[in-house]
Amino acid sequence: MTVWRQISGRLGAEVAGPEGARRLVFLHGFTQTANSWKPIAEHFVDAGFQAVVIDLPGHAGSEHARADLRRAADMIAAIGGPATYVGYSLGGRAALHVALMYPSVVQALAVIGANPGIDNDEERALRRESDDTVIARLEEVGLDTFLQEWVALPLFGGRPVGRLEMDDRRRNTVAGLASSLRLAGTGAQGSLWPRLRELNMPVLAMAGERDDKFTAIARQIASAVPRGACTIVPAAAHAAHLDQPAAVTAALEALLAR
């Protein structure tokens, strides 16, 4: 059984695995928590790696933290240190910021369903309006109803969400999730596309094959970086690490072997 230990820092975080071992840092998506990565993280702990899972600002153990992606990257890098960084969706966008702001600590980078940003100012403004609408809905209906509506979005391909996972997501709060979307949503984020060529570490961009928008983005990311690779995860929608954890684990193992 994997033993997780709390890490002191400005964000809620846990570590497992031997001191001094090669480290992986896992960053979750919106409405999830650090626990969402633990099944995959524990595979790597069993293989002799050290794993760190972090609650992003506004979520679970970091519910009271308020930060945009640049400030989140400061806190994540301080906790994670030198490691391979793995992020899904919101966590992938945070991981991209860590890699660009602190390249010396990012030994390799893997992102799933992550958007480096929206180049067009009008489109970004429309996305901000869309994010504001989501925030208003969250504040109107409350956490439980919002979570039920969120996981039922077509983006997630109808994946059933069990009681334990939903209970874990209920560790979040309306105020925390609203702040996360307001400060670190895609509409609030500047575009990183022009800077991707600066990423000199191995980069793996992943997406579920049933997630058309993000399969195209993953291929674009892989083409934009000097040492990029792309993996399209079969039989998966947006949350590929939850739909097909074995396939995502195998892709991460290949990244670590590069």
Protein traits:
258 residues, alpha/beta, Rossmann fold, 8-stranded mixed beta sheet, 10 helices, 43% helix
Annotate the secondary structure layout.
Layout: E1 5-6, E2 13-16, E3 23-27, H1 38-46, E4 50-54, H2 69-80, E5 83-88, H3 90-101, E6 106-112, H4 121-141, H5 143-151, H6 163-169, H7 174-184, E7 203-208, H8 212-224, E8 228-233, H9 240-243, H10 245-256
Parallel strand pairs: 3-4, 3-5, 5-6, 6-7, 7-8
Antiparallel strand pairs: 1-2, 2-4
How would you describe this structure to a colleague?
Helix content is 43%, strand content 16%. The mean pLDDT is 98. Helix 2 packs across helix 3 (90-101), helix 4 crosses helix 5 (143-151) and helix 4 runs antiparallel to helix 7. It is built from 10 helices and 8 strands. It has helices at residues 38-46, 69-80, 90-101, 121-141, 143-151, 163-169, 174-184, 212-224, 240-243, 245-256; strands spanning 5-6, 13-16, 23-27, 50-54, 83-88, 106-112, 203-208, 228-233. The chain has one domain: Alpha/Beta hydrolase fold, catalytic domain (Rossmann fold), CATH 3.40.50. It is an alpha/beta fold. The chain is globular. It starts with a strand and ends with a helix.
